[in-house]
Amino acid sequence: MTDWIARHPDLVFAAIKVVICLFLLLTAVAYMTWVERKLIAHIQSRWGPHRVGPHGLLQPLADGLKNLFKEDIIPAGVTSRFVYLLAPFLAVSLSLLAVAVIPFGPEPVEVWGARTGLYIADINIGLLFVLAVTSLGVYSIALAGWSSNSKYPLLGGLRSSAQMVSYEIALTLSVIGVLLLAGTLSLREIVLAQTGHWGGMVPRWYIFPQFIAFLCFFISGVAETSRAPFDLPEAETELVAGFHTEYSSMKFVMFFMAEYSHMIVTSLVASLLFLGGWLSPFPATEFWGWTRYLPVALAGALGAVLLVDAVRHRPLWHRFIMSVLGLGCLGVAALLATQETLLAVVQGPFWLLGKTAVFLFIFIWTRATLPRFRYDQLMAFGWKFLVPLAVLNIVVTSFLVAWRAG
Amino acid sequence: MVPLSYYLVLSAILFGLGVVGFLLKRSVITIFMSIELMLNAVNLAFVAFSYHWQALSGQIFVFFVIVVAAAEAAVGLAIIILVFRTRGSLNVERVNLMKW
Amino acid sequence: MAASTILFFLFGGLAVLGALSLILQRHPIHSALSLILVMASLAVLYLLLGAEFIAAIQVIVYAGAIMVLFVMVIMLLNAGEEERTSLSRTARVVGLPVAGLLLAEVCYLLYRAWPADTVVEADRFLGRTGPIGRLLFTDFVLPFELTSVLILIAVLGAVVLAKKEL
Question: Which numeric CATH code is attached to C3-127?
Answer without folding.
Answer: 1.20.120.1200
